[in-house]
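Give me structure tokens for this 406-residue protein.
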Amino acid sequence: MDSLITAAAHALAGGDPLGALNFVALRNDAPALALRGIAMAQLGDLTRAKTLLKSAARAFGAKEAMARARCAVAEAEIALISRNLTWPTKALERARITLEEHGDRANVAYARYLKARRLLLVGRLREAEEALVGLESISLAPALHTGCELVSAGIAIRRIRAKAARAALARADEAARMAAIPALMAEVEAVALVLDTPAARLITKGEARPLLLDEVEPLLASDALVVDACRFAVRCAGKVVPLETRPVLFALARALAEAWPADVSRETLLLRAFRARYADESHRARLRVEIGRLRKALRGMADVKATAAGFRLALNRTGEVVVLAPPVEEEHASVLALLADGESWSSTALALALGVSQRTVQRALETLVEEGKVQAVGQARARRWMTPPVPGFPTTLLLPAPISIG
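Here you go.
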């Protein structure tokens, strides 16, 4: 490797893309093309970066497998940054295996880190954790160490483990300072702000107040009966009843929990569960059926008692009933939460991250465009969607997993 390539590589490792380009900007040999591609990616010109890396991979030739694998890892990172979540993950895995065979441990670790970041983004937390296993025992470069700790913090936040998240962020902050890359330190600060942002609202006895993630964790571990409107479930003393696929039962449970210990009129329950403003006998009959199903679902946690006006929740033990709601509740909140990261997303990537169909996402985006909350950039398959950050709105890290649209 000649001295200019070495100097450019050192500049890129130190977060100085302009310095790197000063060494290789006029060269078109394979190593220089690869370094120019990485430099352009650091400068934000992702389209140019992708073109340069493809040219570099072709220029390296079939016999230089390790260099081609490094280009594939760089392309994977660009795809991740540009929210191209359909980029073939098998290509990244093949590159990792090639790098492992050639003993390039640093780039093997980087490939695993990219895999973990993508899995975190699409909400596959267990697989993201598995991708990071063993990296803590390797001596990583400070910049990569920072990235791995940020992924660990993101996983902990999504799992509502505030202490683990703060510990990972402290390690990330230390590593970022060692790397001395301003953009990296800013990223750590941005994630740290998430922990000081309300992660939910606590609604009890008709009053609501914001909760930080540190307060949510002990609440879910308490003996209180929690109607969790973030994950559409009812929790009590370690037992969880998922109601994500039973929206009528969840609507009834939430209405009863918000009024607890008072009762809720039949008319209010019909409006909340069925949106029925004028109830007839068939609505009342259906309400009785659904209340019976709710009693069965909550058996062992609470009972649903009939009153003169309607129904009320009755606990099987001493304690309280609370509702854990998202900080901001509005239609298509999950789409807005993903777009709030400031990146431009395709509808395909949004559908993949949310675990819903592309048509569902397109309908949500059409509504949000009509409301002026989302802007489209580009045409046809190149169309991307963006939105300005909404104050007080939950970020992607605070989204529950699995994520539900709406």
